[in-house]
Specification:
The chain crosses the membrane at residues 287-308. This protein has 315 residues and is mostly helical. It is built from 14 helices and 2 strands; from the N terminus they run H-H-H-H-H-H-H-E-H-E-H-H-H-H-H-H. The chain has helices at residues 8-28, 31-42, 61-64, 73-85, 91-105, 143-153, 157-164, 174-177, 193-209, 214-224, 231-238, 240-251, 253-268, 275-314, and strands spanning 171-172, 181-182. Strands 1-2 form a two-stranded antiparallel sheet. Helix 7 crosses helix 12 (240-251) and helix 9 packs across helix 12. The protein is globular and about 100 Å long. It binds protoporphyrin IX containing FE (HEM). Protoporphyrin IX containing FE is lined by residues 32-33, 35-36, 39, 71, 137, 139, 146, 163-164, 166-167, 169-173, 176-177, 179, 230, 232.
Length: 315
């Protein structure tokens, strides 16, 4: 796998592609599927074998034909129109940039984007660039399955819940996943309504099961009528550890935006150490080394002055 050279010219091209993506995604209203593409390219990462991840391998037929990726060819073709205008940019960077822009143009948080990911290339020597089918989560399974999948990526419970908040956007299509409908009333707006609805449904049903009030039942049905909850969404309010975050994000949109931006950045950088971080680390080491030398010189000066003074007085 090769990494692009991230020089001034590459960075300039990224900014131009970002502008084109903003216009393209807004005009086509395709933020949800672009975000899903970015997630499905990145979400195959295995922290133990250091395989999969945001390397653009989803563009290969072998991978986009995986069952979990049904429908994503549409997003791959959308990205191709941007790639044609900005051929320098790798697919690995392009798909992640599209995900970041999708969140931004629908009103979500700004997510830091650093380019330079390694790009999967299909060669005769290396035909195993595509991960085996089955690395992405199965919506019909429960909390343990979600943990198995996300921990394999090196992500945490908090990341699982925050990232699931991306279902504030878009919808399920029966011909793609077998599920149908949107999670929220405004599926083109990135906000915390996914959590508000999860929280509402759960706390209302708890109250109803305690036979508190029948009006609640009607209110609950009105609020969530026709909206989707995958089994993997429901477990977020059933598992006590996940539930802590659902409650927080339902009450505090700023907390959700902050955590989402962090988790999304982690997802988009799985297996990739941004050069700026590496540079910052090197800089920090240099500064530390310089400080250590400074302290040693100062100490030597103090000790020498002390001995000089002692020798002078004893004379
Ligand atoms: C937690 C485990 C997850 C499961 C089981 C899951 C499952 C699904 C399913 C079944 C669909 C419907 C696909 C279709 O029929 O078109 C979907 C759509 C979507 N997912 Fe997830 N997902 C998960 C996590 C995520 C994450 C982490 C993100 C992004 C960070 C994400 C973003 C989306 C988006 C934006 C859509 C809407 C796509 C569209 O409207 O075309 N999902 N997901």
């Amino acid at each position: 796998m090769a990494a692009p050279i991230v020089d001034a010219e590459y960075l300039k091209e990224i900014e131009k592609a970002r502008r084109d993506l903003r216009a393209f995604i807004s005009s086509k209203n395709c933020a949800p599927i672009m975000l899903r593409l970015a997630w499905h390219d990145a979400g195959t990462y295995d922290v133990h074998t250091k395989t999969g991840g945001p390397n653009g391998s989803i563009r290969f037929e072998e991978e986009y034909n995986h069952g979990a990726n049904a429908g994503l060819k549409i997003a791959l073709d959308f990205c191709e129109t941007i790639k044609e205008k900005h051929p320098k940019i790798t697919y690995a960077d392009l798909y992640q940039l599209a995900g970041v822009v999708a969140v931004e143009v629908t009103g979500g948080p700004t997510i830091d984007f650093v380019p330079g990911r390694k790009i999967a290339c299909f060669t005769i020597q290396d035909s195993s660039v595509c991960p085996k089918e089955g690395r992405l989560p199965d919506a019909k399974k429960g909390a343990q399955h979600l943990r198995d999948i996300f921990y394999r990526m090196g992500l945490s419970d908090k990341d699982i819940v925050a990232l699931s908040g991306a279902h504030t956007l878009g919808r399920a299509h029966p011909e793609r996943s077998g599920f149908e409908g949107a999670w929220t009333k405004e599926p083109l707006k990135f906000d915390n309504s996914y959590f508000v609805l999860l929280f509402l449904v759960k706390s209302m049903s708890e109250k109803i099961s305690m036979r508190m009030n029948h009006c609640h039942s009607e209110l609950l049905q009105g609020e969530s009528a026709g909206l989707l909850k995958l089994p993997s969404d429901k477990v977020l309010v059933e598992d006590p550890e996940f539930r802590r975050y659902v409650d927080l994000y339902a009450k505090d949109e700023d907390a959700f935006f902050k955590d989402y931006a962090e988790s999304h950045r982690k997802l988009s950088e799985l297996g990739f150490t941004p050069p700026s971080t590496a540079k910052a680390d090197t800089k920090a080491c240099v500064v530390l080394a310089q400080s250590a030398v400074g302290v040693a010189v100062a100490a030597a000066v103090v000790i020498l002055s002390y001995f000089y003074e002692v020798t002078r007085r004893t004379k």
